[in-house]
Amino acid sequence: MQIYSWNVNGIRSAHQKGFLEWLHARPRPSIVGLQETRAEREQLSEDLESPDGWLSHFVSAQKKGYSGVGVYTSAKPNDVVTSLGRPEFDDEGRAILTRFGELDIWNVYFPNGSGKNRDLSRIPYKLDFYAHLLESLKPQIDSGGRVLVMGDFNTALSEIDLARPKGNEKTSGFRPEEREALQLWLDAGFVDTFRHQHPDAEGHYTWWSQRKGVRERNVGWRIDYILASPAAHAYVESAQIHADVMGSDHCPISVSVKPEIAGDFNWSF
Predict the structure, then answer these.
(1) Is 42 within the bounds of a domain?
(2) In angstroms, rounded to a whole number, what is the distance separating the alpha carbons of residues 262 and 99?
(3) Of 15, 72, 152, 224, catalytic
(4) Active-site choice (4, 72, 109, 130)
(5) What is the pTM of this model?
(6) Which entry of 15, 57, 233, 250 is annotated as an active-site residue?
(7) Residue 152 is labelled as binding a ligand
(8) How far is CA 14 from CA 18, 48, 117, 153, 242, in A?
(9) What is the CATH number of the domain that holds 46?
């Protein structure tokens, strides 16, 4: 069973670049979480809203053309939750939970710390978001819940996770306070699925600037993650970064998990 996460940097733009062809090529069962969809549901074409063989759920921001998340599933979830319980977070359409039996999958677009003028003014909001979501999940983690949190975390955790760490120490996404906020997730028990399987692998990135030649030279950042609670991680078989997939300034990431991660949930459509 495959679970994918992808910041598509605008689902309608990704659609024009072959997103649906990529989606329909996914094995079954699969779950595909998207971030930065930047569209309201009524703005989606029918083939994006209801692709053949897939169910979809979307959350949009109040501000048009901004943020937003979506999930495509090849099986019907038991429950879908679209609120974090804080209006200032919910208004930006940043999270959606799909529940499959004993498995909770959070698809999240974590905030960027840069303001309109790259002035770092959004860092307090970003840190508050990190802390609030982690705090809400801690009881479930501590009690042995099976939880995956996937998405664009907008933070590179370690020097190995970006091509030019020294030149970005004061840049949002690699500042000490942001890295510390992400480290708290690991300290709470979450497992970075890709880094767990590839502890020393360098040059594996998930986002590249759109400046000419940057992606070709692989001058990137690993800021997209699938984190697993200890109970969920026991069912993870592999974790991958699909850097060859185009269509966005991010690439998809995925984990392969045993279907039993959801207990006796029926994965048929």
Answers:
(1) yes
(2) 9
(3) 152
(4) 109
(5) 0.98
(6) 250
(7) yes
(8) 7, 10, 26, 20, 16
(9) 3.60.10.10
Domain coverage including residue 134: 2-261
155 is a domain residue: yes
- How open is the CA angle 234-194-213, to the nearest 5 degrees? 165
> Is 7 annotated to bind ligand?
yes
Q: Is 200 a catalytic residue?
A: no
Instruction: Tell me whether residue 216 is annotated as binding.
Output: no
pLDDT tens per residue, range 150-191:
999 999 999 999 999 999 999 999 999 999 999 999 999 999
Active site residue 24: no
| Whether the Cβ atoms of residue 67 and residue 93 lie closer than 8 Å to each other | yes
How many domains does the structure of the chain reveal?
1
* Residue 269 falls inside a structural domain: no
Quote the pLDDT of residue 117. Answer: 78
Give the Cα separation of 69 and 71 in Å (integer): 7
Tokens of 198: 């590839």
- Tokens at 31, concatenated: 């779950």
Q: How confident is the model at residue 118 (pLDDT cuts 50, 70, 90)?
A: confident
Q: Has residue 268 been placed in a domain?
A: no
Angle at 219 between CA 123 and CA 121, to 5 degrees: 10
Residue 250 annotated in active site: yes
User: What is the distance between the terminal CA atoms of the chain, rounded to a whole angstrom?
Assistant: 13
Annotation-wise, does 90 bind a ligand?
no
